[in-house]
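Review form for a predicted model. The reviewer records the input and the model, then writes brief findings.
Reviewer: anonymous (R2)
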Amino acid sequence: MSKSCSCCNPSEAKLDHHDEHSHDHDHGHDHSHEHGESEGNKQIYQLIIAAIFFAAGLVLNAFDLLTPLLEIAIFLVAYLIAGYEVILNAAKNILHGQVFDENFLMSIASIGAFVIGEYPEGVAVMLFYMIGEIFQDRAVDRSRKSIEDLMDIRPDYANLVVGKPENGNTKKVDPSEVSKGDLIVVKPGERIPLDGIIVSGNTEIDSSALTGESLPVEATKGSDIFSGSINISGLITVEVTSIFSESTVAKILTLVESATAQKAKPENFITKFARVYTPIVVILAVLLAFVPPLFLGWSELSDWVYRALIFLVVSCPCALVVSVPLSYFGGIGSASRQGILIKGGNYLEALTKVDTIVFDKTGTLTQGKLSVNGIITADGVSEEELLEAASYAESSSTHPIAKAIVAYYLQTGKQLDGSRIENYEEVSGKGIVLKIGGKTVLSGNEKLMNDHGIVISNEGNFDGTAVHVAKADRYLGRVILRDEVKKDSKQAIAGLMKLGVRRIAMFTGDNKNVAKAVAEDLGINENNVYAELLPQDKVETLKKFAGEKAEDSKSSLVFVGDGINDAPVLAIADVGIAMGAMGSDAAIEAADVVLMTDEPSKLLNAVRISRKTHAIVIQNIVFALGVKGVLLVLGALGLASMWAAVFGDVGVAFIAVLNAMRALKA
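Model under review:
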């Protein structure tokens, strides 16, 4: 029964599962679980004893075997056993200035029933309230445990390599004790405790807890692996690349556990509603009890007080205050199981109203793994000369285009001498300028060439991204690269259109021909394709989108990017979504929603989950307010009994919580 005091304050309610995780992993969780179990057993024992006294009072009263004093005594014992904690909590809360809560309403209603001589009904209010609380607690605990099981990816230990690796000595330690650069051993069947790179061994990795991907992934020497995944088959030695507090599993746990702090509009509405609604109802109940007798005669006082007590019992907003946050919490938990991390109920709610989705192209709709597809040289220039100049220019860059060109050059058996590079400069959104042997080399797009007065040739077009190269004011030609579309991108675009997304657009810094070809392949209207955009152009274009949306502020503008170089755009959108962000600090920091895999189709799941969660929330609000509204009117007219009032509170709350639990399987 003690848990009930949090009912009218959702921020302190039973949803705060992450409190357990904030303790020491080996002790905090077990202790909390045992405490909850013993508390539940205590409630059941109280219920049984109170029910025995209640039943005895009803039976003896039916056979007229009780004196008035004995009748009061038996029902009073039953009442105190069932409701003493509620009365104590009401008194404590009043002393702390929190008057109008569930405990206060139940205490006043049941004590009032005793005052007017309705002893059985006074006990019944507390008894059935207690039954409802027990069932409600069980439902919430089950929901909480389901989410904890979903997120039970925290590693228990790490096998730290001690001494020389070849000796094979390991020591079992807490993951937080392992430093960056240490070696750990992960045995088959063990959960990977920290992010790292495999330095020896081969295996298969189950990353379903992080990504929702059920199929295992092969991992060999040099493969990146992430904490929270499970090593399936082989013994591997891993060099740690992040301490535990910065590991993937820690970031995910922190993100999911703190998600309840960001509340959706219905949650904020219910919180404010409860604060205003409850005192108004109490005032109305007082007026209902004492105003009619002023006109109808004081002989009717007990009847109107009884109606007012029914009014108080029905009015408790517990059903909404618990079920609405629980619905969003369940939706966030369900999404996390599928590798979709949503930072709060407000973002989950915003996804239900998505009207426009803007995709970045490279790395989001396409693989982001470029490969050289052709080399077009200017007159009198050899492919070797062009490729060498381009490779030296791109050798210091980490851009996917640069990596693809350098990799292609090295495959020819040639090597790069970094000492030849001078005055290296990367021009944002255009390319690279540097000197090799005292001669200026340019490598980039047409804008870079135009800036330096280089005349380019457009002969021999290839389908792909062109990197133009010039040396000593002479145009050498261009390297053509291709980036394949992801296998599920087309499915994602088609699915979003079916879900009613009005506008789907694509932003890219690539040239118009490449952008148009990708858009045509994916089914995106070419009028919604914006090519050759510099980073600042993306920001300005998205601001225009936001301005166009302003007429209907209820709709949401979503931007989907890789989360690393799209931070400014992600921040402007109503919902910023980072793709393929497992292990990426920048992505998790910049985005509101993180898709842990490289699958655009996961966005469909995110929208479906948000809409199902929203539907459950609306169902609970309409059901609870509808039933309570009817019973409040019937109670005021004298057409409802205290038994109906108990259903209006406890029954409605229990049904609403059960309905909210469906969000776990959204």
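Findings: The chain has four domains: 2-151+257-332+610-665, 158-190+195-241, 340-367+485-596, 371-482.
Further findings: The two ends are 30 Å apart (CA to CA).
Recommendation: see findings above.
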